[in-house]
Amino acid sequence: MRDLFDGDIVDQRDVQLAPGAMLLAGFARPLEASLIEAVNAIIARAPFRHLVTPGGHRMSVAMTNCGRVGWVSDRTGYRYDPIDPVGGHPWPQMPVV
């Protein structure tokens, strides 16, 4: 069985998805280890969590945030918030990779 992430499977051509939107196949491959390290650092400070909708339903997707503001949802509504409501501190900085 071939590995989905094996380099010879990925089409290395750039593909235009729509005006101004490109798929850059394999573009991040040289940064793979740095990207994984950066994501793990974000998760350590702001772990994945299942948010709750304003109607009280638990979302099926688990998410985290980083940067100046993060998207959150709870019984009071949907919003972008500079503070992690679970940790009570600002979201981790957007990593430079």
From TrEMBL:
It holds the Pfam family 2OG-FeII_Oxy_2. SUPFAM superfamilies: Clavaminate synthase-like. Keywords: Dioxygenase, Oxidoreductase. GO terms for molecular function: dioxygenase activity. Residues 20-95 form the Alpha-ketoglutarate-dependent dioxygenase AlkB-like domain. InterPro entries: AlkB-like, AlkB-like_sf. This is Alpha-ketoglutarate-dependent dioxygenase AlkB. It comes from Candidatus Afipia apatlaquensis.
